């Protein structure tokens, strides 16, 4: 026998932490899933009051956990991936039984909630409509290339070799695998070097967009240049020369060296490089590039001119309003209903109450955090990124009386819409330094100032990193050269040589 202490998370605690950290889109999907799986959870009709049974259940649970509303497991406030925090304990199902497994009966039999009877209102089911309107998955790059290749009239063995090679094309559209590896892994009747070379030639000149199945970026550009010269009859001799022999020099912006070796005028070289920018280095992405993720703001900040202040509100109009079904709540109280059925309904009502309460708590915590940001970063909303101040999460946690990990989860992958645009909420919590005047300035503000200096430099004589350090020091920001180089790389800004423009 031994005495030990263990911390175990109740299922509702885990659920609340997960929902707090979810993005707006993820929360919408979670709610749709809960609506489909829990027969006692339903959408609240517009204009209807909260059902009394839901209020009683929620209030009962709130009263029983006054001291445990702030949810956290880890003290790592800056961790973006807190999946370990939500690791389920192996014995959760044993300890909490049916209260956690609300989608099973007391006998362990799985319940198909999709089969429950629909209401006889004659109205369309919003949940079914939402699932029906979900966009279908787009065809992959492999599927699109195969569809193109099937239309080509070539000998059968070449068609088979083409299907085999398309399987090696990466997301950028390149065929980077070595010929020796391709031949070694090819089926026995396709292990022919001439067949391999001929099929690659056919793939490169058949598949669209031009440049697919190139072995490297040089060949990719050459394929596009040759196709344009062949189809449109334009003269791209200078562009072809630069790509074929001076690609590395172009990447290093060593244009005077190219002019010296080729005898070309600087104007001709810069004009040719401008034309090269019209070609794509990643033709595969034109077919199956992932669509940019749509950003849905979780909070909206408005400026009230009459009161000269900023006001935050949650962008929760899209979230469906949830309530517990009154008919199921009455069945749970009806002694005439079989006990096994009442237990099943009570378990689902309890689960529905948890999800409703967790969504409300998420909204409350998020709005409180955003209001603190408004007060602390007022100058940002008035001036811009250069006015951002350091705002540690510990300071926000102390002001709100919650744990710092709760703040971290509340801002994780959340966005706010402001009069200046949409920004990630986490951006407002960066560290910082002090200016020469003793004022605090965030690292994001330092980056904004650095970009302003680079944008305003003489492009014929761009500033070196040492010169950028001096320019920042003149602006009251004293940071090391390595920090300038790090921020420049983070903003995808090249070195002074790469930024230099030639007249």
From TrEMBL:
Transmembrane segments: none annotated. The lineage of its organism: Bacteria, Pseudomonadati, Planctomycetota, Phycisphaerae, Phycisphaerales. Residues 39-69 are annotated as: Disordered. One of its GO terms (cellular component) is DNA-directed RNA polymerase complex. Residues 48-69 have a biased composition (Basic and acidic residues). Pfam families: Sigma54_AID (PF00309), Sigma54_CBD (PF04963), Sigma54_DBD (PF04552). This is RNA polymerase sigma-54 factor. Residues 344-501 form the RNA polymerase sigma factor 54 DNA-binding domain. GO terms for biological process: DNA-templated transcription initiation. Belongs to the sigma-54 factor family. Residues 131-328 form the RNA polymerase sigma factor 54 core-binding domain. GO terms for molecular function: DNA binding; DNA-binding transcription activator activity; nucleotidyltransferase activity; sigma factor activity. PROSITE patterns: SIGMA54_2, SIGMA54_3. Keywords: DNA-binding, DNA-directed RNA polymerase, Nucleotidyltransferase, Sigma factor, Transcription, Transcription regulation, Transferase. It comes from Poriferisphaera corsica. The gene is rpoN.
